[in-house]
Design brief:
Layout: E1 3-7, E2 10-14, E3 18-19, E4 22-23, E5 29-31, E6 36-41, H1 43-54, E7 77-82, E8 87-90, E9 97-98, E10 109-113, H2 116-124, H3 129-139, E11 147-151
Antiparallel strand pairs: 1-2, 1-10, 2-11, 3-4, 5-6, 6-7, 7-8, 8-9
């Protein structure tokens, strides 16, 4: 359960995490200094996919999933990727999709995760990415913890 929000060059996320029905805080934002990746979905899947994107997303070097992850199993994650020029969404198809402005004239903002609807609503009303994550924490039980933010230089 999570929310990752982006607005005006800043990405923000909650620090909630779960493992075996236990709440464990963790980071959802990673960077290599030139891009920021915000993660939602299964933490292990999202971490592997995010590190692959941070390492250049080379199709010749695909992500190595565990051997038991085969057959009908599919990874479950969503990534929001910002590189100062574009914002893209990466899902389990591993094909980046450009994010277009939600409302023309209000700048580029977007959110993913179970708290995305609350965060998007907040940003429609002018909230920053950090404020949008805080709103999602108030209305979605799966979004909790602290708020972390990241911005590229």
């Amino acid at each position: 359960m999570s929310v990752v929000a982006f607005r005006d060059g800043t990405m923000a996320a909650d620090t909630s995490g779960e493992c075996n029905d236990r709440r464990l805080p963790g980071t959802k934002l990673l960077t290599n200094g030139t891009i920021i990746v915000g993660m939602a979905g299964d933490d292990a899947d999202a971490q592997r996919a995010a590190r692959w994107v941070l390492d250049g997303a080379d199709p010749a070097k695909p992500i190595v999933w565990f051997p038991w992850e085969s057959g009908s199993w599919k990874p479950n994650f969503g990534l929001l990727v910002w590189d100062t020029h574009s914002l893209t969404y990466w899902g389990s198809t591993f094909v980046p999709a450009p994010v277009i402005p939600v409302v023309r004239g209000r700048g580029l903002f977007y959110a993913i995760g179970c708290g995305a609807e609350a965060a998007l609503g907040a940003m429609h009303m002018g909230a920053t990415a950090e404020e949008a994550v805080r709103v999602a924490m108030h209305v979605n039980v799966g979004v909790w913890g602290d708020v972390e933010t990241m911005k590229l230089p």
